[in-house]
Amino acid sequence: MQVLAFACGDQTFCIRITDVSEVLESAPVFSLPRAPSDFDGVFQLRGRIITLFNFVRCFGSGTEYSDSQIVLFAEPYLHFAIRVPGIVESVSLAGAIQEPPRSQDKSAAILEAQLRRGEDLYNLISISRAVFYAGALVQSQESAV
């Protein structure tokens, strides 16, 4: 399996390459009034309005990152992207053993599996769970208002 991987704190997360349409260095982002703080806002790319979710703000350990990249999701989630810390890298996890997620932090809500490559552990993000999680954040924000 080919994935895009990034580190956040002491964990490594990954997304299947087939779930990604492209990776951007940056984009002009417009903040949304009353949006949960886990969202950077929205941006426009080739006529599409894309919601930008900030991975570090939601699942990070409070560590600030000077570099980040924007990962845009593929069909059917072309309207959604996440800002991830640092630089994403392509990793081949062929022959990796899948295990159920064991994370006790809130990122477990978006994990599909944990993959092992040698001594390295990769937390595989489920795109559908990530989008559902983000939607739930918005709904809880709306009900609090």
What does this molecule look like?
This protein is an alpha+beta fold. It is 16% helix and 44% strand. The protein is built from 2 helices and 11 strands. The chain has a 6-stranded mixed beta sheet. A 5-stranded mixed beta sheet has the order 3-6-7-5-4. Strand 1 (2-8) and strand 2 form a beta hairpin. The longest helix is centred in the C-terminal third of the chain and has 18 residues, at 127-144. The chain is globular.
Count of individual helical segments? 2
The helix/strand series, from N terminus to C terminus, equals: EEEEEHEEEEEEH
**Share of helical residues:** 10-25%
What's the overall average pLDDT, rounded? 88
Count the E strands.
Answer: 11
Largest sheet strand order:
8-1-2-11-10-9
Low-confidence runs of at least 5 consecutive residues: none
Indicate the overall shape. Answer: globular
Secondary-structure topology with pairs:
Blueprint: E1 2-8, E2 11-16, E3 20-24, E4 39-45, E5 48-54, H1 55-59, E6 68-73, E7 80-85, E8 89-92, E9 97-99, E10 111-117, E11 120-125, H2 127-144
Parallel strand pairs: 2-11, 5-7
Antiparallel strand pairs: 1-2, 1-8, 3-6, 4-5, 6-7, 9-10, 10-11
